[in-house]
C-alpha cells in the first residue's frame, strides 16, 4: 500500500501559479469492495529567481511634475508560490525618489516610484537608479534592473482619467472583438500636448496583453483571446494615457475585469471499475461498475444531473411564410412545431422569439406554450419585403437544452398603389406644351408620358391608352411605352392646338388608374408657340391704351345696368310677397299655414335639426304646380348656399308659404 514517487516532481510545471498544488487519485480495495480517494499536495521550494522583463528601464519625467507623482515600474515575475514568490522591491538610495510596493488582488507585488522632491533639469539632467526584486526564500533570491531617468521639459498638464478604477464583467465564451470597457481621459493642453494615446502600463503581465486589446485612440478595451473562467476569474489590467507632447504627460488607471462562468464544459463520465462477466446467478444489487462524473464549471453550471440528454427537435430547420400586405393586425401566421423525446419537465417546451432586431418585438409575437407566431401590425410590401428572425425552442431541463429555428416572413404585394405620373408633372401650374411641325409624317414620336408604380410585379405593369383627344385620328400612344406618335401625316387644316388625355392603368386586381394631360402645338418653330401662349401686344403700339379704356368702360356700364335691374326685381318681389301675406290673413284660419312662430317652435322642439329645415312654395293652383323644396344648408368658406330639388323629403317639417284653393288629397 505504499505510494511512491515515480519521477522528479516540478511543481511549477504541474500547477503553474495555482496554490495549493495537488494531485488526486483513487484506490479500489477488494474483498470487501471499497473505494478510497486520496490527494498528494506538492509543496514549493525556492528554486526560481525573480526575473525582470528587461535588464534596463528608461523613464522620461518632466521637471514640472509635482512631488507625490507616482510612476509604475517593470514588475518582476517569480514562478514560485507562497513565501518563495516575489515579496518586495528595494530601490538604491537617491535624494528624489522613494519606492512604494503595492499588492494586487491576487497577492502579487508591484512597485511604483514616488517623487518626494521635485526635479530640476538645470541642476541634474538624468538619474540612474537600481531596482532590486526579492523573494521570501531562505536565503532570498533576487533580480536587478537599471532605471535610467531623463529629466526634460514637458507640457504643463498631464492627462487625467475620469475615474481611477473601472469595473467590467464578461462571459468566458465572449467572442474576440467584444467591447469590455471604454476608458476616458482628458488633457487641458492644446495641439499635440492635448492628444491622448492609450496603452498598457509597463507592469501589465504578458498574458493579459494576449487576452485583451486596447485601442490607442479611443480607449476601447476589447477581448482579443479566449477567456476561461476555470483558469482565471478576475483580471486586473493597468492602463495609461499619454499625451503627444515633447515630454508626454502620463495618467494611470486600473480596469478590473470579472470573468463570468458559462456552461461550456460538458460533464465527464469516468468508469472507475468494471466487473465482467456477470454471473447469471448474481443477486440483485450486485455492483457491476463504478462511475464518477465531474464538471469543470462552477456553481450551478458544475452541478451534474443524470437526466435531459435530448435537445428539442423541430420538424423543420427553417420556415418560409408568405403574408399579404395590409393584413389585419393580430393574425396567426405560423405554428412552429418541435418535439423532445425526454420525459416530464425535460420534455416541456417553451418558444421564444430571439430579438435580433429591436423593431421585431413591435411587429411579431410568439405564444410561449404552443409556438404560434402572431403578426401584431399591418405590413407594407413597399416599406419592407422580408423579415428574418430566430425562434428558440427550449426544454424545461436543468440545465435546459435549446434548438434554434430560422423563420423568414415574406410580404407579398397587393395592388394598393396607383400609377404616378412623373412627366408631365401633375402637381404644378406650369403648362407643358410639346411642338410638332406641320406636315410631320405618321409614326413620328412627339413626346412621352413617364410614370412609375410603387407596387411590384404584375401590379406595377403600366399600360397607356388615349382616353380623350382634340382629334382622335391624329395621335396614338404606345400601350406599354407611353410614347405619343403621330397616327397620320399632319395636314394644313388640322387644328393648331391639341389636348390629349392619357389613361394610365396597372394590371393589378382591382385595376388602379390615373390620367395625364398633354398639350401639343402645331407650329414651324417654338417662337410661334410662345407668341400664341403669351399674347403680348407690341410695345410700340400707341393704340393699346385706348383699347383698354374702351373695354373697361363697356364693362362698367354693363355692370351698372345689371345691378339696377337686379335691384328693381328684388323690390318688386318684396312688394308681391307683402300683398300675398295681406291676402292670406283675410282668409279662413282653417286653411291658414303656420307662421314664423310655429316654424321656430317646430325647430326648437327637436322635430328636426335646423340644418334640415325646408321651405315649400305653392301657387294658388297647387294641383298643377311642382313641389319645390330647399336643400339643407351647408357651410362653405363663401357662406351658406341653398339649392332646390323637385321633390319633398319625408319626415321633415315644411313651412307652407302661399294659399291653396282647397286641401290637397293624399295622392296630391
TrEMBL record:
Predominant location: membrane
Record-linked Pfam families: Cadherin (PF00028), Cadherin_2 (PF08266), Cadherin_C_2 (PF16492)
Keyword Nucleotide-binding: no
InterPro entries per UniProt: Cadherin-like_dom, Cadherin-like_sf, Cadherin_C, Cadherin_CS, Cadherin_N, Protocadherin/Cadherin-CA
GO biological process: homophilic cell adhesion via plasma membrane adhesion molecules
SMART domains: CA
GO cellular component, one term: plasma membrane
Compartments where found: Cell membrane
PANTHER family: CADHERIN-87A, PROTOCADHERIN GAMMA-C3
Record's protein name: PCDGK protein
Phylogenetic lineage: Eukaryota, Metazoa, Chordata, Craniata, Vertebrata
Gene this protein is translated from: Pcdhgc3
Amino acid at each position: 500500500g505504499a505510494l511512491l514517487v515515480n519521477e522528479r516532481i516540478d511543481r511549477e510545471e504541474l500547477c503553474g501559479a495555482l496554490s495549493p498544488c495537488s494531485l488526486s487519485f483513487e484506490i479500489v480495495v477488494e474483498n470487501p469492495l471499497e473505494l478510497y480517494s486520496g490527494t498528494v499536495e506538492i509543496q514549493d521550494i525556492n528554486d526560481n529567481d525573480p526575473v525582470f522583463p528587461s535588464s534596463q528601464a528608461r523613464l522620461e519625467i518632466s521637471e514640472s511634475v509635482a512631488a507625490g507623482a507616482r510612476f509604475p515600474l517593470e514588475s518582476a515575475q517569480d514562478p514560485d508560490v507562497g513565501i518563495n514568490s516575489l515579496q518586495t522591491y528595494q530601490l538604491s538610495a537617491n535624494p528624489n525618489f522613494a519606492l512604494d510596493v503595492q499588492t494586487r488582488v491576487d497577492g502579487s507585488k508591484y512597485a511604483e516610484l514616488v517623487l518626494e522632491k521635485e526635479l530640476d533639469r538645470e541642476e541634474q539632467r538624468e538619474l540612474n537608479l537600481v531596482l532590486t526584486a526579492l523573494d521570501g526564500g531562505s536565503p532570498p533570491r533576487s533580480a536587478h534592473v537599471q532605471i535610467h531617468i531623463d529629466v526634460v521639459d514637458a507640457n504643463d498638464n498631464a492627462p487625467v482619467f475620469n475615474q481611477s478604477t473601472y469595473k467590467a464583467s464578461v462571459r468566458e465564451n465572449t467572442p474576440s472583438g467584444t467591447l469590455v470597457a471604454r476608458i476616458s481621459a482628458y488633457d487641458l493642453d492644446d495641439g499635440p500636448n492635448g492628444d491622448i494615446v492609450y496603452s498598457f502600463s509597463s507592469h501589465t503581465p504578458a498574458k493579459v496583453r494576449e487576452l485583451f486589446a486596447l485601442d490607442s485612440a479611443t480607449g476601447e478595451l476589447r477581448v482579443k483571446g479566449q477567456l476561461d473562467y476555470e483558469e482565471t476569474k478576475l483580471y486586473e489590467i493597468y492602463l495609461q494615457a499619454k499625451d503627444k507632447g515633447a515630454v508626454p504627460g502620463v495618467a494611470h488607471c486600473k480596469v478590473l475585469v470579472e470573468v463570468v462562468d458559462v456552461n461550456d464544459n460538458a460533464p465527464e463520465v469516468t468508469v472507475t471499475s468494471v466487473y465482467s462477466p456477470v454471473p447469471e446467478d448474481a443477486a440483485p444489487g450486485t455492483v457491476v461498475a463504478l462511475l464518477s462524473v465531474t464538471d469543470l464549471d462552477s456553481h450551478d453550471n458544475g452541478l451534474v444531473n443524470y437526466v435531459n440528454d435530448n435537445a428539442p427537435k423541430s420538424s423543420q430547420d427553417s420556415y418560409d411564410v408568405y403574408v399579404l400586405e395590409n393584413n389585419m393586425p393580430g393574425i396567426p401566421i405560423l405554428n412552429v412545431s418541435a418535439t423532445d423525446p425526454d420525459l416530464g419537465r425535460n420534455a416541456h417546451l417553451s418558444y421564444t422569439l430571439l430579438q435580433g432586431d429591436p423593431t421585431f418585438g413591435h411587429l411579431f409575437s410568439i405564444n410561449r406554450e404552443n409556438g404560434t407566431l402572431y403578426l401584431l401590425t399591418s405590413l407594407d410590401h413597399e416599406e419592407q419585403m422580408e423579415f428574418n428572425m430566430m425562434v428558440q425552442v427550449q426544454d424545461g431541463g436543468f440545465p435546459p437544452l435549446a434548438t434554434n429555428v430560422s423563420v423568414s416572413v415574406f410580404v407579398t404585394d397587393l395592388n394598393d398603389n396607383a400609377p404616378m405620373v412623373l412627366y408631365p408633372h401633375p402637381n404644378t401650374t406650369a403648362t407643358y406644351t410639346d411642338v410638332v411641325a406641320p406636315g410631320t409624317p405618321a409614326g413620328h414620336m412627339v413626346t412621352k408620358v413617364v410614370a412609375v408604380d410603387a407596387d411590384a410585379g404584375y401590379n406595377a405593369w403600366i399600360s397607356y391608352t388615349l382616353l380623350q383627344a382634340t382629334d382622335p385620328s391624329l395621335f396614338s400612344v404606345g400601350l406599354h411605352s407611353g410614347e405619343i406618335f403621330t397616327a397620320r401625316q399632319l395636314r394644313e387644316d388640322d387644328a393648331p392646338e391639341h389636348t390629349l388625355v392619357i389613361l394610365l392603368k396597372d394590371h393589378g386586381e382591382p385595376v388602379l388608374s390615373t390620367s395625364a394631360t398633354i398639350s401639343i402645338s402645331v407650329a414651324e418653330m417654338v417662337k410661334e408657340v410662345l407668341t400664341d401662349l403669351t399674347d403680348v401686344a407690341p410695345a410700340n403700339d400707341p393704340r393699346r391704351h385706348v383699347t383698354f379704356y374702351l373695354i373697361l368702360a363697356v364693362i362698367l356700364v354693363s355692370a351698372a345696368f345689371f345691378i339696377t335691374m337686379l335691384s328693381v326685381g328684388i323690390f318688386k318681389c318684396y312688394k308681391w310677397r307683402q300683398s300675398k301675406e295681406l291676402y292670406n290673413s283675410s282668409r279662413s284660419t282653417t286653411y291658414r299655414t303656420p307662421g314664423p312662430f310655429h316654424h321656430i317652435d317646430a325647430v326648437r322642439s327637436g322635430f328636426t335639426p335646423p340644418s334640415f329645415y325646408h321651405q315649400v312654395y305653392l301657387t294658388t293652383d297647387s294641383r298643377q304646380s311642382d313641389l319645390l323644396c330647399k336643400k339643407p344648408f351647408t357651410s362653405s368658406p363663401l357662406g351658406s348656399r341653398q339649392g332646390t330639388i323637385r321633390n319633398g323629403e319625408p319626415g321633415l317639417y315644411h313651412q307652407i308659404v302661399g294659399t291653396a284653393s282647397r286641401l290637397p288629397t293624399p295622392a296630391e
